[in-house]
Specification:
The protein has one domain. The chain is about 95% helix and about 0% strand. The protein has 2 helices and no strands. The longest helix has about 60 residues, at about 45-110. The two termini are about 50 Å apart. About 0% of the residues are buried.
């Protein structure tokens, strides 16, 4: 079931990534234009404005995509541990039933 969820969310993730790339590229284009304006006019007002408006958003986007990989790794580890815990629980239940049957059998004989 996790494979179906992953495959259905891939187009959404891909679209989000494309939007993020466009946004970051736009930021660098505007920053470049404002720096060119600085060299022409000597005023940093445009660069300050672009930096103030977009730098927080660009930082959030970069943080999201760098933070996403560790979260996926933790999710995968938890999924594996849940499966392992379920297997161990079933094994313990089977052994417990077996032990109770032996005890009952020994009580009847003894």
């Amino acid at each position: 079931m996790p494979d179906q969820k992953t495959s259905s969310s891939e187009p959404l993730t891909d679209k989000q990534f494309q939007i993020a790339i466009v946004f970051i590229a736009g930021f660098f284009v505007l920053l470049g234009i404002s720096l060119i304006q600085y060299f022409i006019s000597g005023s940093l007002e445009a660069a300050k404005l672009v930096g103030a408006i977009f730098s927080g958003w660009v930082g959030a986007i970069i943080g999201f995509y760098f933070g996403q990989r560790p979260v996926e790794q933790v999710r995968q580890t938890l999924t594996e541990e849940r499966a392992r815990t379920k297997e161990l629980t079933e094994y313990i239940k089977a052994r417990s039933d077996e032990m109770w049957k032996r005890l009952e059998h020994e009580e009847k004989e003894g």
